[in-house]
Amino acid sequence: MTEAAILLAAATLAAGLAVAFVIRMLPSVRLQLSGLALLAVVLPLVAVLASGWVMFHMHDDAKILTVVAASALSAVLAALLLARWIVRPLERLRRTAGELAGGSLSARAATSGAAELAELGRGFNEMAHSLEQLFDARRQLVAWASHDLRTPLASITAMLEAIEDGVAEPDEYLPALRDQVRLLNGLVEDLFELARIDAGSLTLELHEAALDPIVERCLSGVAAEARSRRIALRADLDRELPPVRCAPEQIERVLSNLLTNALRHTPGDGTIAVRAYSGADAVVVAVEDTGEGLTAEATERMFDRFWRADSARSARGSGLGLAIARGLVEAHGGRIWAENRAEGGARLSFSLPARA
Fold first, then answer.
1. What is the pTM of this model?
2. Whole-angstrom Cα distance, residue 144 to residue 149?
3. Which of 31, 115, 321, 354 is most buried, judging by how many CB atoms fall within 10 Å of its CB?
């Protein structure tokens, strides 16, 4: 009967390890922990029943203790093994978090294993990706801001040196100096506005306002440049357009930025149209042009700060206009997007909450 007792103990141990392996294959940590609890209850129960059987047939305390100890040990080993399988992905995630905290922004967590751990890994990777994009955007902001600030400063320095050396008269360069100072002032104001938007400290005084006068003022503001380039301007607004809750001066700034962008990319003898219509619970305003249209990259990135479709850095604009437009629209609770028109050209649209 000694051999039977040893065989029973070995079978109990093997069964515990086999059940632990099966529990490990369960798809979620919840099920794995439930299986672990069940294993911890069932194996000792089996040990008690087996001990009673041995006691009844063998009347030997040593053999009874052997079977009990082997059965309990199998439960402990199976529980430790299963706990290790569960904790291992968490350890990998902890190491990845340490790498990310140490500055390795490319560190990513494993997305395999139990459902909860896989979901946790995916959420961690999304967070790491967002952090990487944030730091890249900060580096680009510093680089582009330095470039755009350096250009007018270099022009101002050159003109002042020319005046100091007697090469030119002050009155000759005074209008150009004023233009460069105005350009610098505009860039600084744009950076300050963008900083307020990013910090969430932008204050908007919202009230109900009609879009018609806003559209009319914006079109009047670009009419002279459009006329000089023989570009036709049109407004197509729904007759029963409801008022919107907005800060009119900020929405006027958004629409002016979109119109300026459309003028920059519309050839002579082209057309720019401002359309407005009611959606489900919002009013949509769209600026359409007959230009060259948008590339896939432009559609995705044109509202990013300092991004321009061409690699050449011209002195026109700060490259922040559309980024500020997006921030202002989102501060109103709306959204802004870009797309190509089926007839050719681009369409830049934004939505605003309609009056409740």
1. 0.58
2. 8
3. 321
Per-residue pLDDT tens over the stretch 90-143: 788 888 888 888 878 788 888 876 677 788 888 888 888 888 877 876 777 777
* Host domain of residue 148: 133-199
> pLDDT tens across 258-274, in order?
999 899 889 988 999 99
Strand 232-237 relative to strand 271-278: parallel, antiparallel, unpaired?
A: parallel
How many distinct structural domains can be found in the chain? Answer: 3
291: domain CATH number is 3.30.565.10
**Tokens of residue 181, six digits:** 């100072």
Q: Comparing C-alpha atoms, which of 232, 244, 234 is closest to residue 277?
A: 244
